[in-house]
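pasting input
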Amino acid sequence: MKTKIVAGIALLGAFALAATGCSGSAGAGASGGSGKMITVGFAQTGSESGWRSANTESMKDAFSEANGFKLIFNAADNKAENQIAAVRSFINQGVDAIVIAPVVTTGWDDVLKEAKDANIPVILEDRTLDSSEDLWASWIGDDFKKEGETAGAWAAKTLGATPTNMVVLEGTTGSAPAQDRAAGFSSAIAGTKIKTLDSQTGNFTRADGKTVMEGFLQKYGKQINLLFAQNDDMGLGALDAIKAAGLTPGKDVQIVTIDATHDGLQALVDGQFNYVVECNPLLGKQVAQTVKDVLAGKTVEKRQTATDQAFDQNQAKTALPDRKY
Ligand code: GZL
């Protein structure tokens, strides 16, 4: 199944993700210039959030047969061991390339070395990992630290001058977005009067976001002034808990989240969220183009970062009708 594709015609064009999607083209028809289908194993995290659904759809759209790909898709139920097993399976099947959205940053060295030994290029999409750069060809995704800084800058500007008690719903423990968003947010609120009462993972899911917020409310009650949810889904889950405690989200408890999914922006328009930072999931086209370029022997950028924006309520009202996810 391994397809050796001689370098094709040079493909020109910079990579810039527009605010609402990716630019660049996966190139229809023949795959990488050889006409043979490219077999790609894609190890996705799972289906934990609205963002993930949009990312998976974007990837499946781009890695279509019409675009010259045979896609072998695996969703790992957010378990690193499942994802590593999937990558090992792709290697054993002799795929042409492997794409990974790593659930967590650690534990990847061995299987990536096996892929390298099998001469199968690995492209990372969405999340990053800690292994040596020579074990992966390119990463396409969003700047999580900047997302955290943007969310923190809003909190600092809006609430930083008065004593403010904050709770944090963290993403998946050990994941790059959870680590980097936390780092960015805390750097942005340094020196303000925002105090973190508690911080706990909600695993990027609505269900766990609700459960953890219920615990925060039982423990701190009306002391809580601010919730930083590291993705929309945990924030949406927390809304039920906040209302059940007799508090008004967006007023008694102000809420800042990251992703900017349709439901997240709707909550912002409805006044239940106060600020939402985008993390663009529409990465498929650029990932597919990068796979073709790598297999064609072209030099590709090691890091290809998407462009993200941020929304207050008025900006969300304007943007919502045209959103693609
Ligand atoms: C971020 C992505 C995160 C989203 C969550 O790029 O990895 O995982 O913020 C998703 O919604 O579950």
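fyi Confidence is low (pLDDT under 50) at residues 3-15, 17-32.
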